[in-house]
Every structure is written in C-alpha cells, then in structure tokens.
Amino acid sequence: MVSRVIPVDPFDLVIFGGTGDLARRKIIPGLFRRFLSGQLPADSRIIGAARSSMEPAEYKSLLEEAIKEFGGDEKSGADELAAFLNMIDYVAVDAVAGDGWDHLKSLMRDGVVRAFYFSVAPSLFGALADKLHEYAIATSESRIVVEKPFGHDLPTARALNAILAKHFDERQIYRIDHYLGKETVQNLMAIRFGNVLFEPLWNSHYVDHIQVTVAETVGVGGRGSYYDNSGAMRDMVQNHLMQLLCLIAMEPPNKFGADEVRDEKLKVIRALQPVDPHHIVRGQYDAGSEGPSYREDAENARSFTESFIAMKCHINNWRWAGVPFYLRTGKRLRSRSSEIAVVFKDLGHSIFEGDEARHRNILSIRLQPNEGIDLQMTIKEPGPGGMRLIDVPLDMTFADALGADVDDVPDAYERLIMDVIRGNQTLFMRGDEVEAAWEWTDPIIKGWEIRNDVPKLYEAGSAGPEDSMMLMHRDGRKWREIR
Ligand code: NAD
After folding, report:
1. Do 185 and 59 share a structural domain?
2. Looking at residue 20, what DSSP letter applies?
3. Which residue among 152, 167, 209, 240 is the active-site one?
4. Residue 171 lies in a domain
5. Residue 344, pLDDT score
6. The total number of structural domains that make up the chain
7. Are residues 445 and 363 in the same domain?
C-alpha cells in the first residue's frame, strides 16, 4: 500500500533546545523522515536555537550524527541528507538574556508558517515567550509547541498556562502528548466512530470493564533525578493514560474538529470519580538479574517514588455507570507492551450444552509491539465431536493487514510536528484539559504524601506487585497478560 503524502506549506521552524536530547533523538530524525517522504517543501527551514555558541556548519554535523544514530532510515543516500541539512540553520540564544535574539529575528521570513518548538525545561517557557514577544519574532499567527511535563500539579500547570496566555492565544499553543500521535490511538477513534458495529455496544450494558496497560522494560536509569521527583502517576497516568482513557470513553463529537474532540475529552476527565485509595497499587522495582533496583537507578536510597501504578477508576456518567476502568503502567516490567482492552460482558444464556467456559468478546487495541487490533470471538472448534467452542482472535496487525511498509508510517512525533505546521490542534491537549487532569490527580498524590505511602516492591521483569493482581481478583477479573 502506498501512503498518500500531502506536502505541508513552507515553514520556518525554530527549535529552542535544538542541541538537546529530544531534538537529537526525536524531532530532527522525525523531520528528516518526513523530508524523505516528500512532505517538507524544500524552501522550509529548521533553525536550531540553543545556548551553546557554534557555527551552523557545526550544528549540521551534530544533526548528521543524530540522524545516523536515531534516523532509522538506512535507505537514504548522501544527497538526500545533504539536501535536508541545507534547510538547517543555527542561532545561539539565551532564553534568559539578550544574546542572539536580534539575529534570530533577522532570519524570520514573512509569508511562511512560523512555529517555535520549546524543547527546553518548562522553567524556561515564560522567558522564551517573553523574548519572542519583546523582539516581535512571534506574530499573531505563529505557533508554539510545548513538551511534557506540563506542570507538576494543578497550581504549576495553571501558572504555565497563564505564562503562555500572556502572549499567545490558545489556538496558537500546541501541547504535545506523543501518545495522541500514535497510529493506533487515532485508529481507536476510527474504529469507534467509523464503524456501525461497536458504538451500540460501547456502554455499560455491554462492556464489563476496560483495561489500559502501558508496560515498559526500561528502568529510570539516566533520568533518575527527574523521575524521582515525578513518579509514574505524574509521568504516565496524568497525561498518557488519561488521554487514552478519554478517547475510549468520550461521547462522539459532532465532527472530527480540534475543539469538538477536546470538548468531549474534557467532559470525561471532569466526570472521573475521585479514586478510593484502596483501588490504587503503587509499586517500585527491586533489583533483579537484569539490573539494579529503582533506588539505585534513582540514586536515592530512601526514595518512596512509584515506578508502577495500577488503579481502578470510574466515570460518573450515563454511558459508563458501574463500568470499571483499570489502568496500569510501570517500568522494568516483563515486556514492552501497551494495549487497551475492551472486555465485553458474558452472554446472559448459553444454548450450548456442556460448554462451561466463559466466552467473552474482547476488543484489544495494541499500541506496541505490532500495532494493531484484534477482536476475540467465539467460534466452533473445527472438526467432528459436536459443538465445542473456542475463542480465537480476529487479528488485524496493521503491518500484515494493510501490507504497509511500517517504515513509511510516520511515528508519533513526525505526525504531530506536521499537524503543527498544518495548524491542526485535534491531537494536542488544550489548557483546560491539562488542568482538569491535574485536578483529578493532585488529591491522589496528596493522599500518599499525607499517609507516607510506601510503594510495594516488585521483581524486575515481572508483571508488577502481587497487590496489582489482587486488585483484579477481588473483582473476579484478571489482567491480560503482559506479553
Ligand atoms: P536537554 O537537557 O537534553 O536539552 C536542553 C536544551 O535546552 C539544550 O539544547 C540547551 O542548550 C537548551 N537550553 C538550556 N538553557 C537554555 C537557555 N537559557 N536558553 C536557551 N536554551 C537553553 O533536554 P531534553 O531532554 O532535550 O528535553 C527538553 C524538553 O523536552 C524538557 O522539557 C523535557 O522534559 C521534555 N521531554 C524530553 C523528552 C526526551 O526524551 N528527552 C521526552 C519528553 C519530554
């Protein structure tokens, strides 16, 4: 299958923090892949802006290295790389001082899309926004892109929103949650709202429960000091898992527009019930054969930060009354796998005598590995011997089903950056959504602090603490296997 690539309008994209880890690992290699696909007009420019003083040529070699290391495209030749690097420029700027800003202003062109990617610590967002305004570099049509973490709690998120709102309208602000850029996550909306089959069943009459699992094998090594201040709740649940939850649970928007979708997501967050502390399991990985303990990784021998969370939530509305949503995420787990599973209710009555098994339809949406969707169905076991029933998956692994060359499918960052240039905010978080998410998360975290909650240790390479299994067992359910 040949994917249809529609070139975006010419742009000037300034990456503040252009020498940093995120720029080198994700943003630049992603832009290079979009360039190879023919999506970037040749007269577009990517301007790295960071504190280090260096010549554009030096910056280009830094990016060349980054593309070789993280580009993931062995097919491109030297000519293509040279053509891409031709679009690159560099300016040394200091967000908190006057250096470099006149130079940056002199590079800006009229008549092209202007976007500013804040790939720097959030503490610099305000200074950058002020400078863009002070030097009249940003226009009323310019866009800014900001990264997670968007706040540490509700007051800090509100403060960040206020800082950005000083110079930019909400329609200019693109808050990235890269989970929303994943192909499968968007497919979740296609499945729900593009098929007649599922929507009639997508409610408390037919759904027994929903599970969302985001399991990682990596530990926190390398970013231990950041993570230790944050934990799984702030780093994963407040943003990525809640975004997934919103897309599963939201009402159909009247059209696939940025505010229509975000209005519906916001209603879900606002309808989330406060969580009973007994319905949350916090865990921290212990040392295992594969590596050190969390505390060693975080270099904090007394850390009580969680590297694992499992929780049961409820959404207080008509559609979802009584349906539990189980969320689970953690580091150093058995495998790197993420999925959303919609587990439908049992049949009320079986006509098949002697069939004692509990057959359930399960719609599973896999984010990784092997992005795809499968629907567990009950069928007759082939062959003689009467009506013996078995459960089989109707499997649609995208790479198989669509014959897609997986390399041609843009990754989350690529897609989202292209959406910024196109001016499409649908897959970005709105300020009120982020605040509402913190409003729900803050009391949970506060509760742990007040109770001096100690996370349960779990073995690295396992499926998390035993208590997480119990959370399900108590309800007569079980987690799907982390494979
Ligand atoms: P980094 O420390 O590797 O890079 C920081 C960049 O900011 C450097 O280019 C540095 O020159 C620049 N910088 C620092 N002080 C500056 C100043 N006063 N003026 C101008 N530039 C300045 O950080 P990173 O890992 O690239 O992360 C950038 C942002 O993205 C952070 O907010 C981080 O939380 C977020 N983020 C990073 C990742 C990741 O995978 N690295 C993932 C998600 C979110």
Report:
1. no
2. S
3. 240
4. no
5. 97
6. 2
7. yes
474, HSE (Cβ side, Cα atoms, 13 Å): 13
Looking at the structure, tell me whether residues 272 and 400 fall in a common domain. yes
Count of other CB atoms within 10 angstroms of residue 190: 12
How far is residue 369's CA from residue 20's CA, in Å, rounded to a whole number? Answer: 27
CB under 6 Å to ligand 1: residues? 16-23, 25, 50-52, 93-96, 119-122, 124, 147-149
Pair of tokens at residue 382: 């082939």
Question: Residue 76 falls within a domain, yes or no?
Answer: yes
Distance 120 CA to ligand 1 centre (A): 3
Any domain includes 483: no
Three-class secondary structure of residue 363 per DSSP = strand
Domain final residue, candidates 147, 163, 189: 147
Exposure string over 137-157, b if 16+ CB within 10 A, otherwise e: bbeeebbbbbbbbbbbebeeb
Buried b (16+ CB within 10 A) or exposed e, 215-227: bbbebbbeebeeb
Nearest CA to ligand 1 atom 39: 22
The pTM of the full predicted model, rounded to 2 decimals, is 0.95
Residue 173 lies in a domain: no
Per the structure, the complete domain to which residue 275 belongs is given by: 180-421+429-473
pLDDT, tens digit (0-9, with 9 covering 90-100), for 215-254: 999 999 888 889 999 999 999 999 999 999 999 999 999 9
Do 143 and 197 lie in a common domain? no
How many residues belong to the chain? Answer: 483
Domain holding 18: CATH number? 3.40.50.720
Residue 131 token pair: 């400078």
Which CATH number belongs to the domain containing residue 456 in this structure?
Answer: 3.30.360.10
The minimum-distance atom of ligand 1 relative to the CA of 16 is 21
CA nearest to 482, candidates 213, 145, 234: 213
Per residue in 133-170, pLDDT (tens digit) is: 999 999 999 999 999 999 999 999 999 999 999 999 99
In this prediction, residues 435-452 reach a mean pLDDT of: 97
Question: Residue 364 above 90 pLDDT?
Answer: yes
Asked if residue 292 and residue 369 are part of one domain, the reply reads yes
Tell which residue, 211, 192, 194, 212, has the closest CA to residue 202: 192
Asked about 473 being catalytic, the answer comes back as no
